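Dear support,

Our group has been running a series of protein-ligand predictions, and this particular one with flavin-adenine dinucleotide is the one our PI (initials K.S.) wants archived with full inputs and outputs. We had some confusion internally about which version of the output was final, so please treat the block below as the authoritative record. The input we submitted was:
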Amino acid sequence: MRTSTLKRRNGGGVEESAIAAFRDGFAGQTIRPGDAAYDTARRIWNASIDRRPGLIARCTGTADVVRAVRFAREQNLLVAVRGGGHNVGGRAVCDDGIVIDLSGMKGVFVDPARRTVRVRAGALLGEVDRETHLHGLAVPLGTVSRTGVAGLTLGGGVGWLVRKHGLACDNLLGCEVVTATGEVLTADAESHPNLFWGLRGGGGNFGIVTSFLFRAHPVSTVLGGLILYPRDQARALLPYYRDFMATAPDELTAYCGLIAQPDGTPAALIGACYAGDPAEGERVLEPLRRFGRPFLDAIQPMPFPIMQTLADEAFPDGTYNYWKSAFVTALGDVVVDVLVEHGNRAGSPLSGVMVELYGGAAGRIAPEATAFAQRQAQFMIGISAQWTDPAESERHVGWARDLADALQPHASGGYLLNFLGEDPQAVRGAFGSNYARLARLKARYDPTNLFSLNPNVAPAREAEPSPAFS
Ligand code: FAD
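Confirmed final output from the archive:
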């Protein structure tokens, strides 16, 4: 009997006859090593990830997802689930196993009367913005238009509307989910509410979501954009941003960072989005715009979908990436010094450090109300090493790690799930006090850990025998 490069989790190749039987009833495309499409299909946003799956199953709909999940389970395969392919840790692709690829499952359906939006699992952020904007609506998602809605939302999802309207997962009304047994469920406030709790920030541990139902908000034109300063103003800008944000209204989400200009000149930056009355926005932003001597103040009214693309060019496809993050308890002088000192040492003009304060609507939801626990009013420091020459990888990874280590004495122990790499301690830190409940939920919905390539929660040894636990 012929076996293939598709390997079982406990070793041994899957028989060709089993793969042929699977393909027979699968409506989408299946791609294997040696196929012309293979190298393109296994590529993801982060070029540092070079994995060779045994089979890529490009699903056309929920029935394909069910078929792929059942096949993976029967054959004991390592499973990767791909949405937008933007997970920096490369969790959308695996070696030797199966990639259940949802990227072709496009579709965004707006109900303007109810202000709801149904989004299929392969949609990217910009595809949602394009449809909702037609109706003067927006769903709170992220900040880069090519990121996948699925991975971003399941990990929480912070973006330009986080302070006004909450996280992406806070605006989720329900999901269609394929479980590890291949069952199709609706998870919402009434149906499987515990599963719904876990999907809002639990990061893909509990099943494959085939579509999301979101609440949308009337957001059409925002006052937003970037202000760029010479790097030598960063030391003063960071505390100014901290103090300014202490009294900023929810309408304003603003980040502050150290980046480089397109020509490589080191710079400091404020990125801001005011989602409210533009005249009031001008008044609110005025003190921020008064600071220092900027190179450029490009804050202006713009359609929300344009705001959502301002950071796109800073994260081109095919670069090498390594990201770290930490929440710091306060943005005091010592932390500012650490950020500036290390930021000035970044060896690549594409690398950056971003300081982000959430709070607002996201902070008024209790940490235990959804799986997303990191709702405290602390500053999130995102460290993104990004470079173009693979021979330099060690140097850039080292820079990101050194900065993360230097922040440790000031860190809360919490992490932003969506920016996590492989560190299991950081996964626990990200889930915080919700970890035990997530482990029970994992035992209930995925006791064999079929869905393991995610910020993984180990199934609790015994599922909680509670009638409310559905
Ligand atoms: P993929 O790489 O396709 O999938 C990642 C993982 O998500 C999968 O391995 C799986 O575990 C899970 N998953 C994906 N789809 C499904 C599904 N349908 N069902 C179950 N599990 C699934 N995050 C923010 O919160 N805010 C931001 O502003 C932001 N900006 C970013 C900008 C860039 C340039 C990048 C690279 C990332 C950014 N992120 C941001 C992080 C991003 O949200 C996460 O990396 C997220 O995982 C990407 O989702 P994806 O669908 O593209 O991921």
